[in-house]
Amino acid sequence: MKKILATAIAFLFLGTMTAYAGSFGVGISGSYALIDASGKETEGAAGSETEASVNTKDVDNFAAIGSIFAEYITDTGFTLGFEHVPGSADVSDKTHSRAETAVGVSGADTSGAITRKASAEVENFNTFYVEYGDQAYLRVGYAQLDVNTQETAQTDGGTYGNTTIDGLNLGVGVKSDMGGFYVKTSLEYTDFEELSLTSTSSNKLTADLDVTQFKIAVGKAF
């Protein structure tokens, strides 16, 4: 569904640039964002899930996010653009840990009491978007985000790799002019697809990630 949305936005972008006159805009934005995630880790083989082998966790973090954008503003109320968030942000405001008792191979693996630590960060938050409205506007977009897992590998726990997930970006906002520049104030929500990873020891991790932003953007049209 989200890839279909991306294709539709691309065709709309090309068609609008061909059919209507307008101007190009570039700018920067700052937002206060809530990064919310819920996940489940299943240890061991499929079909062997028990209370001890399934671990769930809900985490969130508030972060200040800056971005740069470029867009094409038509005379018919449509704006089509691309936004990039440089840098990275933590999914949670702390590293999470849990104590376990491990049984390892003598002389090779960890055994006894251990503490597993895990956290994650997100980066390369990119969005292709369409906005409609001259002052008050609606926004829909296709987003991508890189998720980097950061866990402590011990005994049979293994490590997870990194991945890229797709998302649907929705927003509402208002525009105004300010001394040769334009200002956009908006509330946006991005719902990402379910993240699914398998560790080097065949453990399974699934997670749902959402980002809510209050954003102020300043641009210059040419």
Write the layout of secondary structure elements.
Layout (H helix, E strand, L loop, with lengths): L1 H18 L2 E21 L11 E21 L3 E13 L5 E7 L9 E21 L3 E16 L11 E16 L2 E12 L2 E4 L5 E18 L1
Antiparallel strand pairs: 1-2, 1-10, 2-3, 3-5, 4-5, 5-6, 6-7, 7-8, 8-10, 9-10
Describe the structure.
The chain has one helix at 2-19, and strands at 22-42, 54-74, 78-90, 96-102, 112-132, 136-151, 163-178, 181-192, 195-198, 204-221. With 222 residues, it is mainly beta. It has one domain. A hairpin with a 3-residue loop joins strand 2 and strand 3 (78-90). It is elongated. The two termini are 34 Å apart. The model is unreliable at 95-99 and 103-108 (pLDDT under 50).
